[in-house]
Amino acid sequence: MSSFVRRSCNHHQIAHFLFTVELDPVPNDLSVTVRRDLADVTNRLVDLFNVHRLPATWAVSDPAFSAATSLVMRSAIRHEMAILGDTSWLGETAGRTRFARELERRVTKSRRIGIDVVSLVPRVESIERHVDLVVKQGITALAGVDRSADRHRSMVPKALHYGVWEVPATIRLPQKSSWFLSSWLLRRRVRQAALQAATVHLVIDAPSLAEAGVQAEKTLASVAEQVAELCKRGVARAETLGAAAARLTNVPNASPQQSILRRAA
Q1: Parallel, antiparallel, or unpaired for β 164-168 and 141-144?
Q2: Which of 83, 102, 178, 239 counts the most CB atoms within 10 A of its CB?
Q3: Residue among 155, 170, 158 at smallest CA distance from 201
Q4: Which pLDDT band, with edges at 50, 70 and 90, does 5 fall under?
Q5: Phi/psi at 142 (nearest 5 deg)?
Q6: Mean pLDDT value across the chain
Q7: What Å distances lie between residue 242 and 80, 166, 247, CA to CA?
Q8: Are 42 and 94 in contact (CB under 8 A)?
Q9: Which helix (DSSP H) or strand (DSSP E) does residue 119 occupy?
Q10: What's the first-to-final CA gap in the chain, in angstroms?
Q11: How many CA atoms lie within 13 A of 53 on its CB side?
């Protein structure tokens, strides 16, 4: 057994990798071409995670009505559907009342058809100031959004309320660097995370991935394969946002995992 594996086993700690896919394009970007390309990339992403047996969180504006929901939920892998929040109902201009109404509508309709939505992926800003409304709807996991210039902000999961966790985006894909450099850097960061038993949250912008082309998808496929191999070796685990929140809530006294990765691009 390698020293890498022994270290992880001896300390009973493993790395945790989360893949969150923002599936819907931003509002007003719904051309026929965008819809077609996004449908194609969605199918390929579902196949990718299924092949490597990696659960992922799939964020759409309204899980009860999204065309992607049935595709994702038919998978043998325990994926998760999440609500993707945009500026039409989330953010300072939308206001608290609209946020509460729209969140309740999406959660209620999803659960009515058997989709137990527990995760929210804000696109524009943290909803920490609305955490009471989130708790009311039974949401337990939030994808962190950080647009500030403070490069020293924490990149580790943060408890906003008992049972409600915000998990920052450690890496956003696709990245702006060349596909070769991007792939090499990402694989190195994944190795570092595994060695330090860190939590890594990879957020995938599906519409941007479709625009970036085949090389960007190859970079993601390479990282997914690497994470799957670490999981097979027992030194890492892939989980959804909801599963991460449940795990973190069940071990409230555990020391937080430090981030060894740079801020998301």
Answers
A1: parallel
A2: 83
A3: 170
A4: very low
A5: -130, 140
A6: 85
A7: 8, 10, 9
A8: no
A9: strand 119-122
A10: 36
A11: 6
Per the structure block, which two tokens stand in for 85?
């929040």
> Which of 143-181 are b and which e, b meaning 16 or more Cβ less than 10 Å from the residue's Cβ?
bbbbeeeeeeeebebbebeebbbbbbbbbbbbbeeebee
Measured distance CA(197)–CA(183) in Å, rounded: 21
Q: 80 and 55 in contact (C-beta within 8 Å)?
A: yes
Q: Is the pLDDT of residue 238 over 80?
A: yes
Q: Hey, what are 10's tokens?
A: 């001896």
CB 228 within 8 A of CB 237: no
Report yes or no: 208 and 176 within 8 Å, Cβ to Cβ: no
Amino acid in position 254: A
* Tokens (6 digits) for 206: 């599906």
The three-state secondary structure class of 13 is coil
Q: How far apart are CA 107 and CA 90, in angstroms?
A: 15
For Cα atoms 166, 201, 63, give the angle at the middle one, nearest 5 degrees. 70
Q: Which neighbouring-strand residues pair with 164?
A: 161
What DSSP character marks residue 218?
H
Across 126-150, average pLDDT: 83
- Phi, psi angle pair for 119, to nearest 5°: -125, 145
C-alpha to C-alpha distance for 145 and 242, rounded to whole angstroms = 17
> What helix, strand, coil percent values describe the chain, rounded to 5?
45, 20, 40
42: Cβ–Cβ under 8 A, 6 or more apart, which residues? 23, 68, 71, 206
164-168 and 158-161 beta bridge pairing: antiparallel
**pLDDT at position 263:** 42
